[in-house]
Amino acid sequence: MKRIGLIINPVAGMGGSVGLKGTDGMAGEARARGAVPHATERAQAALAPLAGHTGFCFLTCSGDMGESVLAGSGIADYRVMYSRDGESSAEDTRAAARLFLERGVDLILFCGGDGTARDIFSVVGRDVPLLGIPAGVKMYSGVFAISSAAAAELIAALDAAVLRDSEIMDVDEDAYRAGILDTTLYGVARTPVVRGMVPVSKQVYEEPDEERAKDEIARFIREVMLPDTFYILGAGTTTEAIARELGLPKTLLGVDIIKNGALVARDADEKTIRDLVGSNEDIRIILSPIGAQGFILGRGNQQISAEIVRLAGIRHIIVVATPHKLQETAELLVDTGDPDLDSEFGNSIQVVCGYRLAQRKRVRQVS
Fold first, then answer.
1. Is the distance from CB of 349 to CB of 363 less than 8 angstroms?
2. Which of 118, 242, 277, 322 could be bridged to 218 by S-S, CB 3.0 to 4.6 A?
3. What is the dihedral of CA 312, 212, 137, 193, to 10 degrees?
4. Which residues of 232-248 are buried (b: 16+ CB within 10 A; e: fewer)?
5. What is the pLDDT of residue 264?
């Protein structure tokens, strides 16, 4: 019988849609801006498919840190080992991880982001394998499954999985909010893997040819931009190059909006985007996969929600990436949180990779 420790960070990812680029210490501000927690939904999507499986039991925390999600998923074999009052904190996460370590669990399954991964790793290190259900804003660490569904499949196949080394990374969120990407390696955990279910940690490319390719992409995009059209620019250095080509500032790790060559919104959250573009039919979304994971939607740009994508329409999404990035990225991944919308992307999408150059890249929906 496999024993799995379950920890859910209920506020993980709340800062994404409201433009906070993280929720560490900012849950109150996220709520004030109208953010709604989705971590429990992500966790339930991973746990519900396991309701009929046998061969493992869960040790978990009280309330929305695990107990309520397990009960709502129809899983009967679980025990509440850690209880807390009020809103959960990082210390609750660490305390639960410490208890699971003492109880000798075979795996700690958690739902959160890089901060949650870091908190758990700080307690258990390499002594207990970790697997994350993605619910945070950034998720640069390599311990996360591609999606909730992939996490469920991996748990179901746990006996056949192998352990690999996975980096625990975290971003300085204060610097991140200021547009500075400052990542730190905190250690190397062990993660159960089945091919295609767990991504590698993100990478940042800084090569001379990359900069030239970005400039060529930007020059082409500037030429084909239409008048009286809203252009929503996602995060990343390639979209930053497009803004630079237009002589405009760009929030490197945020979402900006351009119209008629002018910046009309900088570092916009979902509400700002929705209020600004409204029901306007002339909307384009320009996205670039950030790092090596291949996500164009669902990681690092939650401000561009499923509702925003529907307002623009799938055919008005423009993906840009350098040839090197495409070479290093096996496929592009989409996770808007709306499976029906994700399916509309089909099996492939055209990616602008140079001046009047494009190639078609495989797309996979992970919801």
1. yes
2. 242
3. 110
4. bbbbbbbbbbbbebbeb
5. 95
> Is the distance from CB of 274 to CB of 308 less than 8 angstroms?
yes
Instruction: Judge: domain 2-193, CATH 2.60.40.
Output: no
Compute CA distances 262 → 242, 258, 320, whole Å: 12, 5, 20
Task: Tell me the domain boundaries of the chain.
Answer: 2-193, 208-365
| Three state DSSP letters for 310-357 | HHHCHHHEEEECCHHHHHHCCCEEECCCCHHHHHCCCCEEEEEEECCE
Task: Check residue 120 and give its pLDDT.
Answer: 96
Q: Is the pLDDT confidence value at 195 over 70?
A: no
Q: What percentage of the chain carries pLDDT values higher than 70?
A: 84
Q: Which stretches within the chain are classed as H helix?
A: 14-17, 27-32, 39-47, 67-72, 90-102, 114-124, 148-156, 173-177, 208-224, 237-245, 270-277, 306-312, 323-328, 339-343
pTM of the predicted model as reported, rounded to 2 decimal places = 0.61
Please report where in the chains the tokens 């909006």 appear, as a residue: 257
C-alpha to C-alpha distance for 197 and 143, rounded to whole angstroms: 10
- The per-residue DSSP string of 68-112 comes to HHHHHTT---EEEEE---SS--HHHHHHHHHHHHHTT-SEEEEEE
Report the SS3 class of residue 150: helix
DSSP-derived 3-state class of residue 269: coil
- Residue 314 — pLDDT band, cuts 50, 70, 90? very high
Q: Is the pLDDT of residue 170 over 90?
A: no
Residues 6+ apart with CB under 8 A from 281: none
pLDDT greater than 60 at residue 181: no
- Cα 110 to Cα 119: distance, rounded to the nearest angstrom: 11
* Cα–Cα nearest to 342, from 320, 364, 361: 364
237-245 helix and 208-224 helix, angle to the nearest 10 degrees: 50
Does pLDDT of 278 surpass 60? yes
- What are the tens digits of pLDDT across the range 123-135? 999 999 999 998 8
Q: What share of the chain is helix, strand, coil (3-state, %, to 5)?
A: 35, 25, 40
pLDDT of residue 175: 58
